[in-house]
Design a protein that fits this description.
By secondary structure, the protein is mainly alpha-helical. The protein has five helices and two strands. It has one domain: Protein-Tyrosine Phosphatase, Chain A. The protein has a two-stranded parallel ribbon. The longest helix has 12 residues. The relative contact order is 0.18.
């Protein structure tokens, strides 16, 4: 989640629905490291299941790898986060081929 977004408030709102937080870093002028995001969530939520990753792809791959058939994996934060998640090659874990990418106009 970008540095100028209120990640603590988002965490507070979603906390009852999240079993494990996978915090990934985003680069750029408004970026925030996964470590900083995890610290912010721990301060807001207390000691929760929080893992830290350098990239969105690493976080998503780990979340999908550990998810059961009854789990849902939610990716959120910014358009940057969503774009990186869409580029993540999940097919080798799920066995489901990725849908063809449509260019954004």
């Amino acid at each position: 989640m970008l540095r100028d977004k209120d990640a603590g408030e988002v965490g507070r709102i979603l906390d009852d629905h999240v079993e494990h937080w996978y915090c990934a870093g985003l680069t750029g002028e408004r970026g925030r490291s996964g470590t900083d995001l995890a610290k912010l969530l721990r301060n807001q939520l207390g000691q929760k299941n929080i893992s830290v990753f350098e990239t969105v792809s690493e976080a998503l791959l780990d979340a999908v790898r550990l998810a059961t058939k009854l789990d849902h994996v939610l990716v959120f934060g910014s358009f940057n986060t969503a774009a990186q998640a869409l580029e993540c090659p999940l097919s080798f874990i799920t066995g489901i081929p990725a849908p063809p990418q449509q260019p954004l106009n």
